[in-house]
Amino acid sequence: MSSSKVIVAYWKTRTLGESIRLMLVYVGANFTDKVYEVGDGPTFDKSEYLRDKFKLGLDFPNLPYMIDGDIKLSQTIPILQYLGEKYSLLPPNNRKHHMNMLDHVG
């Protein structure tokens, strides 16, 4: 697995990106928290993210996303599963069962 600094990105809210950030803080990872601004209503301008969206090399460009060297993931559950495995937060046996429990985190 990569030893580069992990980048996590989400809107300037705690919702779907927060469980990812909390996991990284828990394991003491040095990570970059990329925060995208959203304009005020009624238009809710998302141009800051839209400038980056298709330049990131994500298979499914969406937020939240995580970049860890060559590993590029989007969506909360796949990111949590990847980080859980990377940082040995899952027991070695029954791994699939415990990873499925992450579906309800966040």
Q: Would you mind describing this structure in some detail?
A:
With 106 residues, the chain is an alpha+beta fold. The chain contains 4 helices and 4 strands, in the order βαβαββαα. It has helices at 15-26, 47-52, 76-86, 95-101; strands at 6-11, 31-36, 65-68, 71-74. Strands 2-1-3-4 form a 4-stranded mixed sheet, with helices on one face. Strand 3 and strand 4 form a beta hairpin. Helix 1 (15-26) runs parallel beside helix 3. The longest helix is centred in the N-terminal third of the chain and has 12 residues, at 15-26.
Give the arrangement of secondary structure elements.
Layout: E1 6-11, H1 15-26, E2 31-36, H2 47-52, E3 65-68, E4 71-74, H3 76-86, H4 95-101
Parallel strand pairs: 1-2
Antiparallel strand pairs: 1-3, 3-4
Helix pairs in contact: 1-3
Overall number of strands: 4
Largest sheet: 4 strands, mixed
Number of distinct helices: 4
Oligomer: single chain
Overall pLDDT level: 88
Outline: globular
Residues in helices, as a percent range? 25-40%
Order of strands in the sheet with most strands: 2-1-3-4
Please tell me how large the radius of gyration is: 14 Å
Helix/sheet category: alpha+beta
Strand content: 15-25%
Which regions have little confidence, pLDDT < 50, spanning 5+ residues? none
Order of helices and strands: EHEHEEHH
Measure the end-to-end span: 24 Å
Core attributes:
4 helices; 34% helix; 106 residues; 19% strand; 4-stranded mixed beta sheet; single chain; alpha+beta
